[in-house]
Design brief:
Layout: H1 2-18, H2 35-40, H3 55-66, E1 68-70, E2 73-74
Antiparallel strand pairs: 1-2
C-alpha cells in the first residue's frame, strides 16, 4: 500500500513538473454543422490516430464540454440546474 501511495505521489509530481500552459484561441461560437447533418453523419471510431488537435478545435471542444456557454446558463444536463 505504501509503494502504491508513493508511486501515485511521484506520478502526480512528474505530471505537475512537465505541465505547461497553452494559450487557446477564443472558441468559434457560430457556424458549424447543422444538428441533423451531425446526427446523420455520426459514427464511432475505435482507432486512435497519431495526430494532434489544432488549438482552435481543442478550444471549441473544451468550451462545449464546460457547459457554461450561454450567458451563465448551462447547455449540459444537470440535477436541478446546479
Amino acid at each position: 500500500m505504501k509503494i502504491l501511495s508513493l508511486t501515485a505521489v511521484c506520478l502526480a509530481f512528474s505530471i505537475t513538473l512537465f505541465a505547461q500552459n497553452i494559450e487557446l484561441p477564443k472558441p468559434q461560437q457560430s457556424g458549424g454543422l447543422p444538428v441533423f447533418d451531425a446526427v446523420k453523419n455520426r459514427q464511432s471510431n475505435r482507432e486512435i490516430l497519431d495526430a494532434s488537435l489544432d488549438t482552435q478545435t481543442l478550444s471549441d471542444l473544451l468550451w462545449a464540454a464546460w457547459g457554461f456557454n450561454r450567458d451563465g446558463m448551462r447547455t449540459i444536463p444537470t440535477g436541478l440546474n446546479k
